Amino acid sequence: MSNYPVSNVRAQVKVVIWDLDETFWNGTLSEGGITPIQKNIDLVRMLVDRGIMCSICSKNDFDAAKVALEELGIFDLFIFPHIAWTPKGQAIATIIDRMQLRDENVLFLDDNHLNLEEARFVNPNLMCVDGTLDLTTLLELPELKGKQDTDHSRLQQYKVMETKFSEQETGGLSNEDFLRQSGIKIRIITDIDGQMDRVLELLNRTNQLNFTKVRANTEKERADLDKLLATSGMHAGLIHVKDRYGDYGIVGFFCVRTKFSGTTVHHFAFSCRTLNMGVEQWVWQYLNKPEFKVVGPVSGDLDPAMEVDWITEVSDFDAGEDQVEQKRLCLVGGCDLLQVSFYCGTNRDEFVNKQDDQGMLVRYDDVGFFLNAREMDLKHSKPLKNFVGWTLQDMLDLDKSLAESDLVLLSMYFSVPSDNLFTFGGHEFGGKYWATIPPRRLKKLMRDPDHALRFAKEMFHRRLPLEDRLSLTRSAFARAHELKKPGVPLFILGAATRHGEQAKRTMAIREPFNAMCREFCNAFEDAIFVDVDELLDAEEFADSDHYTRTGYFKIADFVNKKTDEIRQPDGATLAVVLAAANAPAESRSIEGQTVKKKSP
């Protein structure tokens, strides 16, 4: 009985490494003759059809072995073959390293027990099976079930890796220089519902670059994943990678939820096919490098000091130029607005809810942020610094962003229902500048007696009727319309009125707000009202003021399609101003992060 039976296979097999002489074929090539074993040739073909790769580790002359394998019509089905007169243990370690796998997922077939022992000595977790046994029984093992891949997409992806390795070796470039000339492009797939099989595969089969290792194998785990993805504010995406060498397919998945106080990373998993390309670092960078507990072991670190600048995001691999980077996006308002903006573009200036150094909320969906005169008096204004949070520089940056952006989104509903409207500054009694203080921020300020006393002296409460508050918000819309580029469409998203308890309680504000938005849009040819009640189905409302991922996607899809419809014939870029009417919740969730932003 062999010391290396088929029962040695104890883990999922991702690659089978074959010896040639007296294993893959009968006889010894260097001694004058071999006899093909048809069932082994068929076995290689069936393994590759299952997405399980095959390689070679054989002590032979490379050219002679290649000719023999080509005559059998099988050479092209092997990847990273090592055919040379060198020790097999280290050669197998090299194959595993080049394939960016772990030895525990590799099966080695050899007729010589000494070779098997040496291979296991160098690669302790390697699975070894006697190559003289009936190897067709391997196909019956669940560890070699694989996944149907009759078009050999997985094989082609490894062939890309082979080509890259060969070119890098002969080119003498450093890894980073090689990556820069590789032309790596990433497409983020946000509509993941039709790709759940790949999501599950990445969560359940990846290890080396699975930083969270939260699986979805059981029915309960799958139900938990579905519930997680349905949570309002959850942002998930699949990562598709190509470079000039070929298509790596969908190689990564992330799922995060971000509030103004921080980001929670639920899933962050990548295929080892892109190990050492910087893909996982780029995605972490794209998500604004959120802190989270990495569940080891992982092959590589996420480096806070590292900036990956050799990867380009695209919306379409086949487009002549990058459609994503073509648009510059300006966001102003509640941070839930990012859930829409993520589907519109990623090159963004953000003026959204954030937490300042004292842990207090700063909001930009404030009429004063638009309407206050940009005067140097505000540069050193103590009320602005101590009580409001945003700065004169923020206002100047807003003006510049509105004037230059190709896609701009505002969320201004908070400015209407809030009763915390104040004026401050100037030389006249009552002050000349407007500001809305969020209730949570005001509550924290009042806990400090010194702050409370100073606030009472410097801030003047303006208890305005609803009509006046709506008028101020309309003036903020007009200011944005004035600053944007001529002919650029202005989208205004209405407030939900048909769904949720909050909508019922605040109907007296929501309906007038929607009426004001419609009136504004009717007054300007390039202003478009988005009626969420008509656009979204009932199940796409998480509550009155938040939507599901598909709800946010439908809103963004409406904006994008409408923008494309009215794109100017000369190809000039268009800006989209989206004023989102969301409730004054102070801990709205963010879907999506940015490349360039004004809030941390």
Give an account of the 3D structure.
By secondary structure, this protein is an alpha/beta fold. Strands 8, 9, 10, 11, 12, 13 and 25 form a 7-stranded mixed beta sheet that branches. Strands 15-14-18-24-22-23 form a 6-stranded parallel beta sheet, sandwiched between helices. Residues 568-600 have low confidence and may be disordered.
Question: Which tags fit this structure?
Answer:
600 residues, alpha/beta, Rossmann fold, Aminopeptidase, 3 domains, seven-stranded mixed sheet, six-stranded parallel sheet, 21 helices, 35% helix, 19% strand, elongated, disordered C terminus
Basic shape: elongated
Main β-sheet, in a few words? 7 strands, mixed
Integer tally of domains: 3
Briefly note the structural class of the backbone.
Answer: alpha/beta
Q: The CATH topology of the largest domain is what?
A: Rossmann fold
Report the sheet-strand fraction.
15-25%
Report the CATH C-level class of the largest domain: Alpha Beta
Question: Total number of β-strand segments?
Answer: 25
Q: What is the radius of gyration?
A: 30 Å
At CATH level 2, the architecture of the largest domain is: 3-Layer(aba) Sandwich
**Helix count from the secondary structure assignment:** 21
Q: Report mean pLDDT, rounded to a whole number.
A: 86
